[in-house]
Amino acid sequence: MKLLICDPTDIEAIEKMRTAGIEVDVRDDISAEELMKVIPVYHAMVVRSRTKVRQPLIDVAKNLKLIIRGGVGLDNIDADYACSKGITVVNTPAASSVSVAELTIGYLFALARKIPDATASMRAGQWEKKAFSEGTELTGKTLGLIGCGRIGQEVAKRAAALEMNVLFYRRTKTDVPYATQVSLDELLAKSDYISLHVPLTEETYHIIGAPEFAKMKDGVYIINCGRGGTLDEAALYEAIVSGKVAGAALDVFEDEKDDRGKKLFTLPQVIGSPHIGAGTVEATARVGGEVAELAIAFYRENF
Ligand code: NAD
Which of 227, 254, 260, 290 is catalytic? Predict the structure, then answer.
């Protein structure tokens, strides 16, 4: 089996696949144009989020039988179309849950105590002790989770350990340790912090927008380490300018290629990162390990 690695992948995982007998080529910065040219000879490909596997690529990938997406979600793959062509599409949904949950918890503290701003002030040679002594504690505050699957539940566990009161909203009735299920309206009305952990679907597009901000407490904080597009960024901007929202921490953006939430970052209340939720040494190794296992199992069954 000839397998092409299209995005950065753990080196140990690559060695494991080679040892199992898979012919692995690593082109982890390959351009879309170059990929169109080389893909016809490959039986399998590994992508993370950078490489897009759309219909035109699938049409020229005459030998392709397996697409492995290292990570959560299949947004960058025309998965239904690939399946219709007999291609198996798999991913590693649980490998990065803890990393994303930890980033979310980090943002709770960063917002409550303005840690990024205080650091910037120190770097600028200032000693603004008074300005940065008006933070708040997380203990006793209410955290509302929109979506409570793998990542949401890891966040709930950690937030409960911080003695936060954790509410969650999801479509189906579910028992989640450390958290109480409520309606979306109740969550919006009661939460001091609201954190999004839903995938981007037609239903969740702008699940938090102007009507939802209107139902929130004054001074609420918003965190999005889920998917861009679930939060209406224009509405968030207005809600911050009006004073309704006290601050926001964003790891994901509706348009990550060009806009990257640039307007929001003109506001001092907004902190963020370039989609690094899964970007830890541990998650990368775990994703790599799962990618290798999926590739080896497929190779043994089909070649
Ligand atoms: P999951 O499938 O385990 O959980 C998703 C949750 O959303 C579930 O509770 C589900 O019931 C809920 N949900 C789905 N549609 C809903 C709707 N219309 N209304 C209410 N609730 C709804 O997924 P997960 O592994 O927890 O991942 C959550 C999100 O985090 C995904 O979108 C994923 O892409 C994103 N993510 C981000 C990063 C990052 O780097 N920031 C990394 C990994 C995953």
Answer: 227
